[in-house]
Amino acid sequence: MPEGHDADLLTLDELTERTGVSARNVRFYASRGLVPSPVRRGRSGYYGPDHVARLELVRELQGHGFTLSAIEKYVEQIPATATPSDIARHLSLLAPVTGDRDVDVPGGLSGMGISPDAAQAVAEVYAEHGRQVAEELSEIVRTKVWPQFREAGYTAEQLREFIHRLKPLTIAGLVTAYEQAIDDSQASYDGRRR
C-alpha cells in the first residue's frame, strides 16, 4: 500500500467494527489468503480499503452459501493487485444470486457517459446471452444431471436445492469467462494497433 494512504488505514478494532468480522476471523482469513496480511507500521498492523473490500466479498460469498473451499477458489481468481473498486464489481455481480434483479444496466452506463443507444445495446447483449446460457444450462441439467440424480434416488426437491447451489458457481464461472474474453479481445486489439 502506498505510503500516502496512511489516513485510510484502520486498526484491527476499527476494521472489525466497520466490517462486522471478528478479529479472530480476520486473522484466519489472512492466514488462508482470503485477505492480505496487515500493513505493518512498527509493531502494529493496519488495514486499508482493500482489506475492507475483500472482507465484504468474503462475507457476501458466505451469505450465498459458498463453502470456505469455494470462497478460496473464487478469491484466487481475483488478482492481488485488484483495487477496492475491482472487488466491488465482484460484489455487484453477486446481486443476481440474491434475487436483486433491479440492476439498471442502461442507466448505469448512461451515468458513465455512454450514449443511451449504446447503453441499451449493451443491455440487450447481456439479456440475450444470459437467456442463451440459461437455456443451455437448463438443457444440460434436464438431459444429463437429472437422469443421474434420478438413478441415485434423489428427489426433485434435492435437484432444486442443487440448482440453487449451482447459481453462485455459474455466476463466478461466467464472470471468469467474460474477464478472460475481454482480456483476450483487448490483447488482440492491441496487437492489431501495432
TrEMBL record:
Coiled-coil region: none
Keyword Transcription included in the entry's annotation: no
Top-rank taxon, per record: Bacteria
CDD domains assigned: HTH_MerR-like
Gene3D superfamilies: 1.10.1660.10
Sequence ranges assigned to domain HTH merR-type in this UniProt record: 9-77
Name by which UniProt lists this protein: MerR family transcriptional regulator
Protein's organism: Nocardioides cavernae
